[in-house]
Amino acid sequence: xxxxxxxxxxxxxxxxxxxxxxxxxxxxxxxxxxxxxxxxxxxxxxxxxxxxxxxxxxxxxxxxxxxxxxxxxxxxxxxxxxxxxxxxxxxxxxxxxxxxxxxxxxxxxxxxxxxxxxxxxxxxxxxxxxxxxxx
Length: 135
Ligand SMILES: [Zn+2]
Ligand SMILES: [Zn+2]
Known about the structure:
The protein is mostly beta strands.
């Protein structure tokens, strides 16, 4: 079982199944919706997903008809996305899960849409916190 929450802590949820088909999605929509280089998304069974706190604070945005992006109205964290054409499963962004996740991403997708400043295989130095020279 996984537990997740939004940035402000208003919305809390549980996932009572494994997370499947985890991908790093570099498409332009994921760049916009996260404000970052890519989103890491996976699927869970709708029946195994439970909002345990803050349901009334969830709002949704519908870019395409029937595809809703549900987010915390207080802090804007993306909680899950639903697709009316596929009601049995929902998509979640792995960054809102607090638990340690045992499944692993299987691929980078839509790499031709990736941001011009993103280098997938960059051999950049790695730090546990900010880089040493940051003011
Ligand atoms: Zn929130
Ligand atoms: Zn995407």
